Amino acid sequence: MQIKEVARKLNTTPRTIRFYEEKGLITPKKNEGNDYRLFTDEEISRLSTILTLREIGVPIREIKKRLENKNMTMSDYLNIQRSALYEQWIEMKDMITTIDRMIEVEQTDQVKHAINNIYELAQHLKNLKKIRKNWQDKWDFDSWAADFDHYIKRDGHTFNVHQDYDEALNRVINTIELASGETCVDIGTGTGNLGAKLLSKGVHVIGIDQSEQMLMVCKEKHPAIETRKGHFLALPLMDNQVDGIISSYALHHLTDNEKLLALEEMTRVLKSNGQICIADLMFVNKEHRQQMMETYRREGNTEAIYSIEDEYYGDRSKLVDWLMQHDYIVETYQFNNILSMIYAKKK
Ligand SMILES: C[S@@+](CC[C@H](N)C(=O)[O-])C[C@H]1O[C@@H](n2cnc3c(N)ncnc32)[C@H](O)[C@@H]1O
Fold first, then answer.
1. Contact 234, 87 (CB under 8 A)
2. Which terminus, N or C, of the chain has the lesser number of Cβ atoms within 10 Å?
3. pLDDT given for residue 225 in this prediction
4. What percent of the chain has a predicted confidence (pLDDT) above 70?
5. In this protein, which residues make up the domain named HTH merR-type (predicted)?
6. Average pLDDT over residues 61-76
7. Ligand 1: which of 147, 211, 251 to mutate, judged by most atoms within 8 Å of the beta carbon?
8. How far away, in angstroms, is 250 Cα from ligand 1 center?
9. Burial annotation 321-342 (CB, 10 A radius, 16+ → b, else e)
10. Each residue of 280-297: pLDDT tens digit?
11. What is the model's pLDDT at position 73?
């Protein structure tokens, strides 16, 4: 097919097609006699992929990178782009909400106070953006994905973070009350071990993870789980979209400040009578952490000290306080010295 026909077929212009050729995204052969470009079916399909990705906002350099990776499917591209757009949307929402509050302050406060209060709101927004942007996967979860399920050791070693793993996952599933047809999101789903336990109850499970490799393993093991690339701090979900939120062994990869922002995100996506159930590595409170760290030091348990300091084991009391202040009824359960469950239901 020649360029004009291709342009007509794909509802674009020959100029746009030539632009993508200049950028090296497509390389159509040229007719030796008249130098006209000739497009094969494969090139037309590649071009339609490029046009689709441009339409949903993927930058050209990203498209080039992604098309070079032959293992990626269209749904992989879409998943990644959806996650990026949600991040932008959430940032925009933060800005709009802040502007609304600034206008309110401007109209109600005295001039001198208004200037200070508006400045404080701007600083709060700056801080929020920083927290959302700063999180990094310093553990490289992509590289764990293939072996993750073998890595979960149930016993042995001087410090076993997965002691009570099975009991914790089962308790989460038995605590959260969801009916068939309801939607539950498993955040930091990894290979889907927790979310999969809800499938037999007829619950629609969305597994969210920042690691694309983890999501690939999850999808392979549990095709019925809908996987979405995304982040605790910018969930790829609309407001009031889900009935339940579950999570296991994931929240302790966020600092204390990040954890509270994650709870805010969960509250945003949860329906009005929604529930949250989290099993994770955490201490009961600050004193409990100190006491446990002293015990490990006295015992010379360097493995425990290293593991705890490499991650951000939570302070359960802070999470519970936040949830109660935000109108949740909260229950807790302690499995062992480092593992707890928090169940929260919106009032
Ligand atoms: C230790 S694995 C636990 C997986 C699974 N929930 C389980 O219990 O078997 C932690 C998972 O959380 C994900 N994770 C960590 N931090 C995250 C974040 N900020 N946003 C989304 N996922 C995150 C990791 O990519 C990883 O897949």
1. yes
2. C
3. 98
4. 99
5. 1-69
6. 85
7. 211
8. 4
9. ebbeeeebeeeeeeeeebbbbb
10. 999 999 999 999 999 999
11. 85
